[in-house]
């Protein structure tokens, strides 16, 4: 081990190619930018998590244990805005995507490295503005900025927060643009579309949503800002505007945005399942095309957020039907992952536990989505804790599990070192248990009728709220453990070697950590993705 | 199996080739695909505005027509002509860059800049200033009082947001062109390296096309042509 | 802490049971698929665990019949759910013709309710059991949402337009009324109770309430106060008699049905939708009339059937 550590320190790779703050802040290396993003979103995750902790503590008592309602409103707005726009949306694309897209297709970098760095600066600018808004003075509109509340009624930092989100949106657009061009134009010789790892298909589908959806929320926020600054009535009915139009424009982006969060996780899971079952994916083209199908259909279902908003019944019926359609490609993925395990050679390192946890939680989150796509039941469940439970199963149970699984899987590649697998498995188990304890009671609360965003609630809801808060404390421990051992491993972890999991894929054919230019020579691909059966068939 | 050009350490075959690309063809294709995708995001950005405009125009047809009648079609038409001319000079500039003709390139870029600035200045001094004095600017000075005042105000909201965002795109475009003029003067462009000029050209034409949509939508509604 | 704890909300309206059956059906589907996935993963995970490092997994490319099966079976199931949910929703959205109409105005952060007899309430709604009640709702400021979980009903209350909701309570008692759409600082305090009473008790309560005039009477008074009568009744403006629910042709060629929303809009923004054959001379009443008064005027206009119209003229 000692000699290995020496090897890590002596070989030139992207981490030690040069030193100093400047070499990081001015880097155009996609791997270093990925690390910049990783540090930033971890910071935002901690901020958002802190808000969540305070929310759960507050809700232990029906009359609110800690805060005034106004403060509570600012906390959940902060939690939502920070987690959605500054953790979930950039999480896998900006960290793992940035690191892996060029490596997986056998390129030296993304197509536009400077643009990539710019997108991180844009992201940070938006993030700092939003942090300023939510901490000094706060925002109390919820992350949805519904009009006319946001434009004419609240006195908080709506303008600066909306502007921060607007700016950060460009980061998302630029990242998506970079990925699409890279995947189209920079694949290594032999890397055909149908040889690409499924993670790339997922990133491609995600990028399409980022590119086409984000501008719409951007212009919507511009209109909100114009209305708020000049008191004109674009969305305010008092001056002739239509508040429901805002909801249409907002959800046109914000529903697909859910798929920006979950699609990349699906891609990660396809990588993990195949590697730890030592098996090619079951039904490659079905999994690949279901990603694209999800991206396309996701643009057509936004109206299911508005079944009770006063939109016409007929619009409701059409959106309901389309929303059910999006369930199908999701189901296809889950069944194919499960079938991949069949006759596999399955081992249970930490990333695999996260992947299996993802499938379980995503299944539960996806299936409860059926209740909300169904008009008659959504009428009862809309804007209750059922919705909160549902989207946390997708975004935290799904997206965050996938992110953690991916981080654990590629950590040896990113840092060149291994983390203690026992601790990692323990953390995965704690996250799974804590998550279910936190959010399952919320389904029950929603069915009972507890509205979301309530600082003060009726006493009969207390039992389930206390359960949820108790679960949250377990979940918090589950999230804290990886933070500790991952940081520990950066210095003390044993050397990983190029391919600790025996995985397939171009990124595993280069040393860990990779050299700045990724590959000694541009590889030539001559086999399918996940060719776990074919021994040593690849060309280096 | 033929190895491709290997490492970063290798001296570049051409200084026009960025390290992540294999050859100039790949670099050129990537740059133009990137630009097209960016324009797709712009279409969606303006698309949100157009959607809102369409909905309100259907809700408040009379007010929108009345609002449109307050606009000066002649100036709008002159500005349209100015922009179309600027697209021509831009297209010629791209050609000049491809052929590596330095002086024509610089001249044509400057012509484009001047036409672009002319558009913005006409808009600003002859239209927006006039609207402000007439009391047609919602939020700042809206004094119009007639039967359709309320929906006219909405029309002018959209008018100012749409033309404002468009003008902002023009200003950004002019800024980019200035940078191109400096680079072109230094002789940075040629047959191997004209991606920037071409990208800026695509952007410029796109902004023009937006105006081609804005002009009839805002100026020519309600049987005035 | 355990006081009032239950895992099932009370069923207190004719709508509740139908929604619950669908809810149970969906729960069954969820449990079934969750069980399949969990059991399959668990079984495969144990059965095919890696026993040695040299072990090779059997490579399977895929299976088209299987793919078709797990595409088409879920598709069939969601089609059933869609048809069931949609038909139930359409039924639940249509108030019976004989409904008693009650008017709801939401504002930050209270509910104002007005009975046709003129009784007004705040954050409390008294209704008789077993009688269909239709709510016509609007907001004075931001978007609110009127939700009664025990009835399984919910609808946004949007400024600038009327939304409707109906229910028929099947149980006497007191049921929570929540604002479900986040509406600002005291959103969580914008709640109340729906008190369902036996019809006799309800009549008693109603007669014991503050006896003002009925909504129609109040509307008639406003009709004179605001001088509507000087035009609408003299031929200068269109007559209101018997127009409610009828189509009307506008100067811009559109044909609309006269409903609550149309009337509200015409009172506040008269020049937008002028009836064919009339000039746009009506001034706006925006700012001179509250949401409650608007509802009263509309109630009055609705009450003007041809015979009555002659009587008042």
Describe what this molecule looks like in 3D.
The complex is a heterotrimer of chains A (540), B (225) and C (313). Chain A is mostly helical and 540 residues long. Chain A has a single domain (2-509), classed as Cytochrome C Oxidase, Chain A (Up-down Bundle). Chain A is built from 16 helices and no strands. Chain B has 225 residues and is mainly α. Chain B has one domain: Four Helix Bundle (Hemerythrin (Met), subunit A). Chain B has helices at 24-59, 61-69, 73-99, 102-134, 149-185, 195-219; strands at residues 136-137, 141-142. In chain B, strands 1-2 form a two-stranded antiparallel ribbon. In chain B, strand 1 (136-137) and strand 2 (141-142) form a beta hairpin. Chain B starts with 23 loop residues before the first helix and ends in a 6-residue tail after the last helix. Chain C folds into two domains: 10-38 and 72-212, Sandwich (Immunoglobulin-like); 215-312, Cytochrome Bc1 Complex, Chain D, domain 2, CATH 1.10.760.10. Chain C has a five-stranded mixed β-sheet, with helices on one face. Chain C has a five-stranded mixed β-sheet with strand order 4-10-9-6-7. In chain C, helix 1 (14-47) runs antiparallel to helix 2 (64-93). The N and C termini of chain C lie far apart (63 Å). The chains are: A mainly alpha (540), B mainly alpha (225), C alpha+beta (313). Chains in contact: A-B, A-C, B-C. The interface between A and B is large, with 50 and 45 residues.
Query: Tell me about the biggest sheet of chain B?
Result: 2 strands, antiparallel
CATH class type of chain B: Mainly Alpha
Shape of chain B: elongated
CATH H-level superfamily of chain A: Cytochrome c oxidase-like, subunit I domain
Count of folded domains of chain B? 1
Radius of gyration of chain A: 23 Å
| Overall number of domains of chain A | 1
What is the SS-derived class of chain B? mainly alpha
The CATH topology annotation of chain A reads as Cytochrome C Oxidase, Chain A
Class per helix and strand makeup of chain A: mainly alpha
CATH class placement of chain A: Mainly Alpha
- What does the average pLDDT of chain B come to? 87
Supply the CATH architecture of chain B: Up-down Bundle
What is the assigned CATH homologous superfamily of chain B? Cytochrome c oxidase, subunit III, four-helix bundle
Low-confidence stretches of chain A: 536-540
First-last Cα distance of chain B: 66 Å
Main β-sheet of chain A, in a few words? none
Biggest interface goes to: A-C, 93 and 88 residues
Number of strands of chain A: 0
What's the mean pLDDT score of chain A?
A: 92
Order of helices and strands of chain A: HHHHHHHHHHHHHHHH
């Amino acid at each position: 081990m000692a000699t290995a550590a020496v090897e890590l320190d002596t070989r030139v790779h992207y981490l030690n190619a040069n030193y100093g703050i400047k070499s990081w802040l001015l880097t155009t290396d996609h791997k270093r930018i990925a690390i910049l993003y990783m540090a930033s979103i971890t910071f935002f995750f901690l901020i958002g998590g802190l808000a969540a902790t305070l929310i759960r503590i507050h809700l232990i008592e029906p009359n609110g244990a800690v805060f005034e309602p106004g403060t509570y409103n600012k906390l959940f707005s902060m939690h939502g805005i920070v987690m959605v726009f500054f953790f979930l949306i950039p999480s896998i694309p900006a960290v793992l995507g940035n690191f892996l897209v060029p490596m997986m297709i056998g390129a030296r970098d993304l197509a536009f490295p400077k643009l990539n760095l710019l997108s991180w600066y844009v992201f940070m600018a938006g993030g700092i503005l939003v942090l300023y808004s939510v901490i000094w003075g706060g925002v109390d509109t919820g992350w949805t900025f519904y009009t006319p509340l946001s434009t004419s009624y609240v006195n908080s930092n709506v303008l600066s927060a909306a502007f921060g989100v607007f700016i950060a949106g460009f980061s998302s657009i630029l990242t998506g643009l970079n990925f699409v061009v890279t995947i189209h134009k920079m694949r290594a010789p032999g890397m055909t579309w149908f040889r690409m790892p499924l993670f790339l298909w997922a990133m491609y589908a995600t990028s399409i949503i980022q590119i086409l959806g984000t501008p719409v929320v951007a212009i919507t926020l511009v209109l909100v800002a114009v209305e708020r600054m000049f008191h004109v009535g674009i969305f305010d009915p008092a001056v002739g505007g239509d508040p429901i139009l805002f909801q249409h424009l907002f959800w046109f982006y914000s529903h697909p945005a859910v798929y920006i969060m979950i699609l990349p996780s699906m891609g990660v899971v396809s990588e993990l399942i195949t590697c730890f079952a030592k098996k090619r994916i079951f039904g490659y083209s079905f999994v690949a095309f279901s990603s694209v199908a999800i991206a396309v259909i996701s643009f057509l279902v936004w109206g299911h957020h508005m079944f009770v908003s006063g939109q016409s019944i007929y619009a409701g019926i059409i959106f309901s039907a389309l929303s059910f359609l999006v369930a199908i490609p999701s189901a296809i993925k889950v069944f194919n992952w499960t079938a991949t395990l069949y006759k596999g050679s399955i081992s249970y390192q930490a990333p695999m536990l996260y992947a299996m946890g993802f499938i379980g939680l995503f299944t539960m989150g996806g299936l409860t989505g059926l209740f909300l796509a169904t008009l008659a039941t959504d009428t009862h469940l809309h804007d209750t804790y059922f919705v909160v439970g549902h989207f946390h199963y997708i975004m935290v149970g799904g997206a965050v599990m996938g992110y953690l699984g991916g981080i654990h899987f590629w950590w040896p590649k990113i840092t060149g070192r291994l983390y203690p697998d026992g601790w990692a498995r323990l953390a995965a188990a704690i996250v799974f248990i804590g998550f279910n304890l936190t959010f399952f009671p919320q389904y029950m609360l929603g069915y009972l009728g507890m509205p979301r965003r309530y600082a003060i609630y009726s006493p009969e809801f207390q039992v389930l709220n206390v359960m949820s808060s108790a679960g949250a404390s377990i979940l918090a421990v589950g999230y804290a453990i990886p933070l500790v051992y991952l940081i520990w491993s950066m210095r003390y972890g044993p050397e990983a070697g190029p391919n600790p999991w025996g995985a397939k894929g171009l990124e595993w054919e280069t040393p860990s950590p990779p050299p700045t230019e990724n590959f000694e020579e541009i590889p030539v691909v001559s086999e399918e993705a996940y060719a776990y059966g074919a021994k040593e068939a690849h060309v280096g | 199996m033929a190895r491709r050009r290997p490492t970063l350490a290798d001296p570049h075959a051409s200084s026009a080739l960025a390290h992540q690309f294999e050859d100039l063809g790949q670099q050129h294709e990537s740059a133009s695909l990137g630009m097209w995708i960016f324009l797709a995001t712009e279409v969606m950005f303006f698309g949100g505005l157009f959607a809102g405009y369409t909905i309100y125009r259907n809700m408040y047809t009379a007010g929108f027509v009345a609002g449109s009648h307050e606009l000066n079609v002649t100036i709008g038409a002159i500005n349209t002509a100015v922009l179309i001319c600027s697209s021509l000079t831009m297209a010629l500039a791209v050609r000049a860059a491809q052929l590596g003709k330095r002086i024509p390139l610089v001249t044509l870029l400057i012509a484009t800049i001047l036409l672009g600035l002319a558009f913005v200045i006409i808009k600003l001094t002859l239209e927006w200033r006039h609207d402000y004095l007439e009391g047609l600017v919602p939020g700042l000075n809206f004094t119009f009082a007639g039967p359709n005042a309320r929906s006219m105000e909405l029309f002018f909201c959209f008018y100012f947001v749409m033309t404002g965002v468009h003008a902002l795109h023009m200003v950004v475009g002019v800024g980019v062109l200035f940078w191109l003029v400096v680079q072109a003067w230094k002789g940075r462009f040629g047959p191997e390296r004209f991606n920037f000029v071409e990208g800026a050209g695509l952007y410029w034409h796109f902004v023009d096309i937006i105006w081609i949509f804005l002009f009839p939508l805002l100026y020519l509604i309600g049987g005035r042509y | 802490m355990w006081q009032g704890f239950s895992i099932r909300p009370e069923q207190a309206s004719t709508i509740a049971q139908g929604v619950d059956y669908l809810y149970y059906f969906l729960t069954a589907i969820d449990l079934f698929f969750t069980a399949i996935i969990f059991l399959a993963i668990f079984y495969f995970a144990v059965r095919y665990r890696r026993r040695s490092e040299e072990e090779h997994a059997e490579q399977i490319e895929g299976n088209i019949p299987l793919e078709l099966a797990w595409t088409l079976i879920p598709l069939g199931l969601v089609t059933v759910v869609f048809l069931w949910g949609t038909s139930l929703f359409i039924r639940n959205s249509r108030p019976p013709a004989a409904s008693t109409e009650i008017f709801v105005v939401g504002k930050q952060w209270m509910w104002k309710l007005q009975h046709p007899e003129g009784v007004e309430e705040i954050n409390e709604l008294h209704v008789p059991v077993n009688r269909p009640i239709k709510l016509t709702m609007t907001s004075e400021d931001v978007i609110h949402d009127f939700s009664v979980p025990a009835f399984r009903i919910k609808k946004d209350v949007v400024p600038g337009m009327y939304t409707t909701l109906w229910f028929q309570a099947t149980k006497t008692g007191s049921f929570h009324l929540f604002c479900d759409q986040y509406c600002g600082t005291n959103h969580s305090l914008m709640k109340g109770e729906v008190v369902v009473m036996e019809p006799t008790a309800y009549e008693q309560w109603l007669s014991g309430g503050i006896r003002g005039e009925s909504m129609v009477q109040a509307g008639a008074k406003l009709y004179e106060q605001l001088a509507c009568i000087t035009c609408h009744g003299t031929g200068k403006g269109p007559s209101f008699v018997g127009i409610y629910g009828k189509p009307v042709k506008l100067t811009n060629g559109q044909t609309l049905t006269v409903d609550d929303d149309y009337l509200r809009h015409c009172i506040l923004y008269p020049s937008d939708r002028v009836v064919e054959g009339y000039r746009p001379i009506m001034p706006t009443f925006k700012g001179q009339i509250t949401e409650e008064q608007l509802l009263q005027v509309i109630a009055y206009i609705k009450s003007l059937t041809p015979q009555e119209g002659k009587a008042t003229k």
